[in-house]
Each structure stands twice: as C-alpha cells, then as structure tokens.
Amino acid sequence: MANNNHNPSRIPPLLLILPLFALGLYGTMVNGFETGYFSILTATSGNLGGGPYVPGGPESFDPRYTGNKAIDTRMGILIGFFSGLINGERKWDVDLAYTWMMGMFFSGWALVSVEAHRRANKGRLISWTSTFGNLVQTVSYALTVPSYLILHLSTTSPATDDVSIPEGEVRHLPLSMTLAYILPAVLMSLSTPSMIPGKLHYDMTALWQIFPVLQFFIHRGLNFVCFPRAASTTKTKGVGKSLANHYRFVIFTSVLVHLPILLVSLTPASMAFGPVWLRDMISQTTFSNVFVPYGVWNPPVVDPVKVAALGGDNKAELSWLPRLTKHFLHYDIGCPTLAILVWAGYNYRVAVGNGGGIEMGKLVGWLLVGGPVALATVLIWERDEGFLSGRNGKKAQ
C-alpha cells in the first residue's frame, strides 16, 4: 500500500467524467428532442387515435397499470421506447448493440450497488443506490450515474475510508439482481407473439422499469430470511467470500455479454460460418455499427413520411425507430460506462500509489475480454484487497 494517508487530487477524474456527462446529456436528451424522437414516442406510446398502442408492438397493450394517469402515461412511453427497439424492424447490428448495452448497464449497476453497503458510506447520500436507481429509470443512466460518481468522488476519502462490507450484506446481491433485472430483461426481449404473448411482453417491460425497487425488497427479504443479523455484521480480513463472489459475478456477466459480441463484430463478412442465423449475424455486423455511435452532430432523424402514416394499417411501419433507440442507448449506456471505469481507476490509483499494481498487459486483457465494467470491477477488487488485507492485491486478475 502506497498512499494510505493521502488523497490524490480529484480534479483529473472529474475532468474526465464531466465531459462524459455532457456528451451523454447531449446524445440522449438534446438529440432526442432535435431528431423528433421524443415527440413521436410521447405522441404514440400508450395511445394512438384513441386506442391503446405501442410503437412496433403487438396490439394487446393495456396502458392501465396503476390507475394514475401521469404514472401510466410515463410507463407507456418507457414501454414504447423498448417495444420499438425489440419489436420493430431491425437487423443484427441493432440486436447485438442492444444486448451489449443492456449487459453493460447491468454490470455497471451491479458494481455501483456495492457502494451502498460499505461501512464508510453508511449515512451518506451515496448509500442510497436504490434511489439513484429509480432516477436512472425515470430520467436516464447517462445523467444519473455520472452524477452519482461525481457525488461519490466529492464526499468520500478513498485513502482513509473504511471500504469493508459486512459479510452478510452482499451475500444475496447476485441472486436479487438476477431476479430483479436479468429475468424481466430477458423475458421482455423475447419476440412476440411467436415466443411470449403480447401482454406478458408488456408486463415484463413494465416490471423491468422498477427493477431497483424489486432488487431492494428481494435483497432485504433474502437477507432477513436466509442470513442471521448477527452474521451479517461480521467483519472479515480482506475481501470476504460474499463480496469476492459478487465481483466474480459482475466480471462473469460482463465477459458473457462482451466477448462473443466483440468476436462476432470483428469477424469479416467474407469469413462468415455456421448456421444461417450466425452467418447473417456476422455479415450484418461490424465493430463500427455495433459499438460506435452516430456523432451527436449527425444523429439519425425521424422519417416524417412514415410518421405521418402512423395509424390504421400503417401503425407498425416503424423501421426507422430501432436506429433512433440504438443511438439513444449508445450515449445513455456508453458514456456512464466509461465514467465508471474512470472512477474505478481513480480509486485503484489511491490504493497502489505511483508504483506497483496490475500489469498493463492484464489491464488491456480485461478490457478486451470483458469490456469497461469488467476492468473497473478488477480495479475496485484490487483496491479492496489492498486496503483490507494490507497487501498489493490478491488474485483478482
């Protein structure tokens, strides 16, 4: 451990996170209004021509979830956002980009959620991760996560804070997140009506919107039922088994999503192989159209001709919608994902100082194999090992 009594300047990470925050804001909110995307979602989601309707989705949509018009209208827009992407006309580049971004969203959220359980964070605003999670679903990931990271950097003292976590606090976090996030996300992404009924598709999309609330109650319930309170306060030397397992879970989910998509996108179309669906996937995807967003100065725009045709038999003619949603998600997920890596890198640097640490080759390897969140998790795990066990890291790498 090299820097136990000194906090390096927070200015460098802030100077990196703030532009990512601004870029995410522009690519989501500003572009959303400029392109007409938000206007169309608002005008069509939940109701079109007096009848319940969601862009691109099956006809059996019932917008009455709570009975509160404001909440149900908002829910209809959120359902329309994903329905247009999942059910609209699209190609493999949209499918893989959507899968990658949902995976990075999950892994990033799983890593940040740990901060609610650290002893030093108890009583601090940054321990309210469920509240921030609700803001993510209400506003956007691009605005909420960088704001949370800036608040974290501004209110913590990483060189001296107690980053330990009671052993029982995170024991069931992977299971609660799987039930609250992954299960609804998988079900809502299945094609309808060929794989699931339209009503189940919409219900799972609505359920996924409140996953932070579900996660909170499932996690607390599992801890209450399965883990005695006395054991939940146990303090372990180094990174405890439960926390280590959670880090492994985050890395595993990151690699599971990132590596196959990266390999497919890097395979030339001339080398397509395997069954028809895999050959189509390879021929339709490149690294650029999966991972690289449109510039904020040149986003895809709403096709006014097709929008004018909305209604009657033409309601499902929304082939332009998935590209707009993909553009939004590129900035909504991509910018905060990079911000999480910056935040983790700063906390890791506090632990190792200017010497030692993970070799550069291993850092690059984790980035290639698991993407930004896998690397961020490795860095935070190493940081924890360094502080909690007094040595320069266990084998997180």
In words, what does this structure look like?
With 397 residues, the protein is mainly α. The protein has one domain (11-389). The protein has helices at 11-34, 37-44, 69-87, 92-113, 129-138, 141-155, 173-189, 198-209, 211-226, 229-232, 241-266, 276-284, 287-291, 304-308, 321-352, 360-389. Helix 1 (11-34) packs antiparallel against helix 6 (141-155). The longest helix is centred in the last third of the chain and has 32 residues, at 321-352. 46% of the residues are buried. The chain crosses the membrane at residues 97-114, 178-196, 208-228, 249-273, 328-351, 363-381. Keywords: Membrane, Transmembrane, Transmembrane helix.
Features:
397 residues; mainly alpha; 16 helices
Q: How far apart are the termini?
A: 18 Å
Outline: globular
Mean pLDDT: 84
Quaternary status of these chains?
Answer: single chain
Task: List the domain count as a whole number.
Answer: 1
Q: Tell me about the biggest sheet?
A: none
Please tally the helical runs, counting DSSP H or I stretches of 4 or more residues: 16
Low-confidence stretches: 230-234, 391-397
Transmembrane segments: 97-114, 178-196, 208-228, 249-273, 328-351, 363-381
Keywords: Membrane, Transmembrane, Transmembrane helix
Task: Provide a concise account of the structure shown.
With 397 residues, the chain is mainly α. The protein has helices spanning 11-34, 37-44, 69-87, 92-113, 129-138, 141-155, 173-189, 198-209, 211-226, 229-232, 241-266, 276-284, 287-291, 304-308, 321-352, 360-389.
Write the layout of secondary structure elements.
Layout: H1 11-34, H2 37-44, H3 69-87, H4 92-113, H5 129-138, H6 141-155, H7 173-189, H8 198-209, H9 211-226, H10 229-232, H11 241-266, H12 276-284, H13 287-291, H14 304-308, H15 321-352, H16 360-389
Helix pairs in contact: 1-6, 1-15, 3-8, 3-15, 4-11, 4-15, 4-16, 5-6, 5-9, 6-15, 7-8, 7-9, 11-16, 15-16
